[in-house]
Amino acid sequence: HEYGTQVENQQRAINRLYIGLPVALLIIYLLLFTMFGTIRHAGIILLNLPFALSGGIIALYVRGLDISVTSAIGFIALFGVAVLNGVVMLEHINHLRKEGTPLPDAVVQGASDRLRPVMMTALVASLGFIPMALNTTQGSEVQRPLATVVIGGLITSTLLTLMVLPSVYY
Questions:
Q1: How far is CA 33 from the centre of its chain?
Q2: For 137, what's the count of Cα atoms within 13 Å in the CB-facing half-sphere?
Q3: Most-buried pick from 34, 132, 137, 168 (CB within 10 A)?
């Protein structure tokens, strides 16, 4: 009976995530639109999310872990960092454009200027989750999927932020 209750609780949590995740993405999009004032710039930043998602899923697969409620929470945390890195990059490119820098130069300079901040954000978050990802003590089955998603997703979304996002902006 207790096992059936746990399965039911997990199913309810997953059903709430089916609603919560799209709502969170909509709120992120609206905040980005409010910040940048254009659908285009908000959309460019949201391009980070599929790359983050794929990196998280690949990392779960490589480690032999299943998608669970805790991994879904990891995706939400990952999306926050991926969006932050995109905002850092795009905001600087926009600033250079407002100063009169031609588009090709603004994209190249903006990407090179923001290389270190984007890398540091991703590295700090990834390194902070390594102990959780490698933990094997009691309760670690809850921590491992969350940490694995964040680390794997940050690898792919950081590469996108540094290489693809400036190209798409151009």
A1: 18
A2: 2
A3: 132
Cα dihedral 66, 70, 75, 78, rounded to 10, equals: -120
- 92: tokens are 């600087």
Contacts with 117 (C-beta within 8 Å, 6 or more apart), sequence order: 88
Residue 101 class from Cβ within 10 Å (0-12 exposed, 13-18 middle, 19+ buried)?
Answer: middle
pTM of full prediction above 0.90: no
Instruction: Determine whether 63 is exposed, middle or buried from the number of CB atoms within 10 Å of its CB (0-12, 13-18, 19+).
Output: middle
